[in-house]
Design a protein that fits this description.
By secondary structure, the chain is mostly beta strands. It has no helices and 34 strands. The protein has strands spanning about 1-5, 55-60, 70, 75-80, 90-95, 100-110, 130-135, 135-140, 145-150, 155-160, 175, 180-185, 190-195, 205-210, 225, 230-235, 240-245, 250-255, 270, 275-280, 285-290, 295, 305, 320, 325, 330-335, 345-350, 360, 365, 370-375, 385-390, 400, 405-410, 410-415. A 5-stranded antiparallel beta sheet has the order 1-10-9-8-7, with no helix packed on it. A hairpin with a 4-residue loop joins strand 25 and strand 26. The chain is globular.
Length: about 425
């Protein structure tokens, strides 16, 4: 059941990102402002190691692969801690950005022994990245619950009434559009996308995910775009990507991609090209470029190009100007012309990859699962700039601030700054 704690809820942002409220140091959601993986003007570090250019390293209790988010000199993340009595303590944490000191820890949900579903070895019970809008932080633990906190850690509301059978655990993060919090619930059966009232946590709408895919579980984070002045929530699932009207959950358009399942990558959008870019999931992923101005099933009319070689199952695509950057799970990085799908280069950058790449100051950052980040120059010619090893398992995506990267490993959170 959902539970509400009156908190004098202030007005929420009118869209996913409110530029006037964000500083250059803020990284408020998965993949940063607008969820595109762009850290512009941040003067990010180029070289580091486990001992070099480490401003601080802070141990994080429990386990979790949610990425850190930043606002006003504070870092927020989630974690899952197994307690002595066998419960699973799902927590939100706040750290001081300047030195990594813990400012507060809040247990959001306590899960009884045996009530949490089994997870994949590459997953955690705290894999969804928090979302910050104005003075609220939304934390999401998939089928185990969703909550809204004030930035001091006090609880505004929580909802643990959404029951569905997950597979491999949870992963996708929520988005906020006006006053509706939206995320996918793509489980083993009867998948759906849901919108909650951002002020109360009550269900506003629920739209079934209509798909012919035999495996219906997926983990993608939606992307919010505007087409001809109207907002769309782009939500990939197994076998199909759908665009939804955020206030009502009405499906606007869809593109089918066969049996693709366990879809993880978050789509990116180019207003210049009027294209949405996404990857279609296991077992044979394809990158698709789709015009988002249609209605109904537009599979045969609005897919502009597809690419299979080097397509990722897990890392999200990265759009920088006219180029789309990709890294496959097996470590093949690509630079592709966004308009045509022409491949400018494909190079092996090493290791297995789960984290999504980011861009800053003309550099592309590819972080692999062994904690090694290869930095390349953005452009149509491949140029490797550095290779930086932390020597720790790392599946979470980077957060970026002014002159700093924040990297979550299996046990720690690093601030890297030259």
């Amino acid at each position: 059941m959902y539970r509400i704690i009156p908190a004098g809820f202030l007005s929420l942002a009118a869209s996913l990102t409110v530029p006037s409220l964000l500083s250059a140091q803020d990284w408020p959601e998965f993949r940063g402002p607008a969820g595109q993986g762009l850290a512009e003007g941040s003067n990010l570090p180029l070289q580091w190691s486990a001992t070099r250019n480490v401003a601080w390293k802070h141990s994080v209790p429990g386990s979790g692969w949610s990425s850190p988010v930043l606002k006003d000199g504070h870092i927020y993340l989630t974690t899952s801690v197994s307690t002595n009595d066998g419960h699973l303590s799902l927590r939100a944490l706040c750290l001081k950005e300047s030195n990594g000191a813990t400012e507060w820890t809040k247990e959001v949900f306590s899960i009884q022994p045996g009530k949490a579903a089994h997870i994949h070895t590459k997953n955690s019970q705290a894999s969804a990245t928090p979302l910050i809008v104005e003075n609220r932080i939304y934390v999401h633990f998939g089928h185990l619950g969703t909550a809204c906190l004030n930035l001091d850690g006090s609880l505004a509301w929580k909802n643990d009434s959404l029951h569905y059978p997950p597979v491999h655990g949870n992963g996708g993060s929520p988005v906020l559009v006006d006053d509706v919090l939206i995320f996918s619930c793509d489980g083993a059966s009867k998948p759906f996308v849901i919108g909650l009232d951002a002020a109360t946590g009550k269900e506003r709408w629920r739209t079934p995910r209509v798909t012919t895919s035999k495996k219906t579980f997926s983990f993608s984070t939606p992307t919010v775009i505007a087409v001809k002045g109207s907002k769309q929530v782009i939500s990939p699932g197994s076998g199909v990507v759908c665009a939804f009207e955020p206030k009502t959950g009405r499906e606007i358009w869809r593109v089918r991609y066969g049996e693709g399942y366990s879809v993880v990558p978050r789509p990116v959008y180019s207003p210049r090209h009027n294209l949405v870019f996404l990857s279609s999931g296991f077992d044979r992923p394809s990158v698709l470029a789709i015009r988002p101005d249609g209605s109904g099933d537009v599979t045969d009319t609005h897919v502009v190009w597809q690419l299979t070689k080097g397509a990722p199952n897990t890392p999200s695509p990265l759009l920088v100007g006219d180029e789309l950057y990709l890294v496959s799970d097996g470590g093949i990085a690509s630079c592709v012309d966004a308009a045509s799908g022409k491949v400018h280069w494909q190079e092996r950058v090493g290791g297995n990859h789960s984290a999504s790449p980011i861009h800053g100051d003309g550099k592309i950052y590819f972080q692999n699962e062994e904690g090694t980040c290869v930095v390349v120059k953005a452009g149509r010619q491949f140029e490797k700039l550095s290779e930086n090893a932390l020597g720790e398992r790392a599946l979470a995506s980077f957060a970026a601030g002014s002159k700093a990267l924040y990297i979550r490993t299996e046990e720690s959170l690093y601030k890297i700054s030259e």
